[in-house]
Request: fold
Amino acid sequence: MERNSATTWGAAIIVVIALVLAWWLIPSLHQSSGKDKQVADQFPNDQFPSTYKPYPSKPTLIRNATVLTATNQEIDGGDVLMQGGKIVSVGKNLAAPADAVVIDGRGKFVTPGIIDIHSHLGVYPSPSNEATQDGNEATKPATPEVRSENSVWPQDPGFTRALAGGVTAMQILPGSANLIGGRSVVLKNVPSVTTQGMKFPNAPYDLKMACGENPKRVYENKGGPSTWMGDVAGYRAAFEKAKEYRDKWRAYWKDKKGDPPDRDIGLETLALVLDKKIPVQMHCYRGDQMATMIDVAKEFGFRIAAFHHASEAYKVADLLKANGICAVMWADWWGFKMEAYDGIPENIAMVDHAGACATIHSDDPIGIQRLNQEVAKAMAAGRRMGYPITRAHAVEWMTRNPAYALGILNQTGTLEKGKDADIVLWDHDPFSVYAHAEKVFIDGALLFDRDNPKISPRSDFEIGQEDNGETGGAGQ
Amino acid sequence: MRYSLILAGVSAFALATAALAQTPANKPAAPHPSAVAQKIVNDAIAEGATKIVLLPASAQITLIQHGDVYTVGAAGTLNNADVLIENGKIAQVGPNIAPPPGAKIIDAYGKPVTPGIMASWTTLGIQEIQLVAEVNDATPNQALDSAAFDVSDAINPAETEIPVARIRGVTRSLTAPADCGDVFCGTAAVIDLGNGPDLIVKKQAGVVAELEPNGGEGQKNARPDIWVKFRETLDDAREYCGQRAGYRRPGGYRDQRSNKVDLDALCPVVQGNEPLLVHVERASTIRQILAYTQSSHVKLIILGGGEVWEVAKDIAAAHVPVVMDNDLNLPGSFSDRGATLQGAARLDRAGVTVVFQPQSDNPGAHARTITQIAGNAVANGMSWDHALAAITKNPAQVFGIADTYGTLEAGKDADVVIWDGDPLEVTSAPTAVFIKGQNISLVSRQTRLRDRYRDLSKKPFAYR
Reply:
């Protein structure tokens, strides 16, 4: 048996090697012929690969701080040790390696880096003018072919300010003009000349879609949709086309007979959504509309990771829990349009209390700088209605839960051994208006230090603007 | 001004808003007083109160005892002190005030007690929902100057934004137009956020003007265009206001660029009786407006942020106050390259009277963020006392209502808030709010929605 098995495996390996060699040696097998750009029997999903390299780091031990691990744990007098860009250990009385930088954390707090799951930094950058508005391809209601990563301007000074607010990663989304707005991208908040140099390694792509008023407002005089029912019909039509497209390719891959189907990069993205390789991040304010979208997702078999803005998530928290969908919310924004009229400050706490996944977001280059305060407001609102919400739990709304909703929780979002050392040292309880992020580490590298103006990144835009008396950069 | 991505992210928003602004505003009538009273009763019932006695504010006597009283006045901060409210006014502030017969006693032991908070440069009362034209009376027709666009024609005491703001301690607002005509935007008013029906405290609290090209959604002016129009209109106003009778006489004045009503609205401004609230961001523009107003009788108030701090010394010397959202630390436009979180602290240190605006992308709906704005200014170098003054005493002085509001001192309107913690802290909230002596029910449409959905399993939706 064993011998036979070994023989079989040996033969199999030889066959595989032969096939691989043949594939390389016979160009027609792997080079595009005619319209066929596919190289394997699946839709490609790895364009614009990340070139991110962590900044240089030193082994660092933060000692004697209040550590909020975002695993529902608060450690008084806790230590965090990072080395080689990773979290090596979290606990008490940790030994420092000989070459470690030791930081006295007494009276200070440590949290995982904040993740803003809804940002338009880089695609709606500062300064805001005609030239810099790259967030909405508002030329037709469905543009699954576009990607926010192709719009991001890495020199947006907003990235530096967010860093000073403790934000170590963010999802940059296309805007909400379109039913299907395009792919989003997850970035590490590091200074980089290229967007690819910020791209969070191994973070999945997501697809931005939008419910409600915005697509209606943009397209009511541009051929529609002009109603919510028109929006819904628009999503369904797009995914029906994507299904046909996927089936055509599957049929072609089966026997490779005849010409391959024409490639359509928009439908290719939607096909990957149908295959659940790209989850949907859905801008949706109203509870009833979230329910409708859950049914649309079921009809076509795609996965909605989160409803964004979700002013009425508290009305359907049970539904969100049952379907495993996160709600991405503000602490207290409401009332700027009809679909935001029922927003309440207890939204996050109520969704959380119902057992669904609750997440803060900014959607704003100013708000992103103080997501800790937004969580504090949401926590306080929940406590006032009688929920015993601890800091240890609330911190998850800005670190663990957004990481989960983005599919990067295995890499960041909590202070656990082996994860990326994306860490913030706060000078006070982060849930106070008076707290500042004092030091911000990304992959163990100290990228912002409030006490050292030399460790405060500045974008190119702010270079040479010194005549205004400010230095620009993260701490401005 | 904050650039709002959630709205402006959709670029057609500007067009849509402009289009909506063309339709005549349909101003809701003030509710009948009895309806307001009924609302108070309903709110109180919703709060679980057992006994409702509706008395006119004048008949109520309340004694707040043992609070940490931040008077923001000459008396400073008084620990373990009392505040007596009588006839809608503050009757007495100090230790050990003897309770008058029939007084309602509130124990505020260990709790901060402050004046009601004033949110300035907001749309409270005139813009319930930004993108619903029918309840957005904050945006004038942009085709013309609109100094005569007077927000006091639109104040709606039934607006749901008002309880949302006041249960977080906001008791006053400087309500102003949110957008502008060519250069002039409209006339602001001070309102209180009480039960109404009449919320107007002071009409003609200032005319707003826009001097930055990036300020108005539809504005396409270059700076010299703006200045030509700005000077010409004010010159016309001076000429016209001196001899109004001659305006329509045959052979009288030439046609002015502005309408008669707009010139009428500018008369108190050019005569120095009503302030001109000028939105500026760029340091050079600020120097220019300072120079202009120093050679005229115009009483200037700066609405801005951005690079205002760079001109702090000159602004202080000219005794010009500044109203600002100090969170804006990005170069949102080329006029804001110097924007920094230290702006308010630097202005304050230079001796400028600073007044805070709530989150400027939607200062009506988000009026309650005013304490957070003040708290952040403290986190970035301003003294706590001065930050509290910037949302109480300073706006009272700047907008001409300091005789009745702004400090906890005998004789002033009883706008009083008791807090469960540091009022500038994001986790704090009021435990009691008084506006002109009325004990405000801590209920809003939002608390009602919260309670309605508190337990999704409790009972079928129709019976919640």
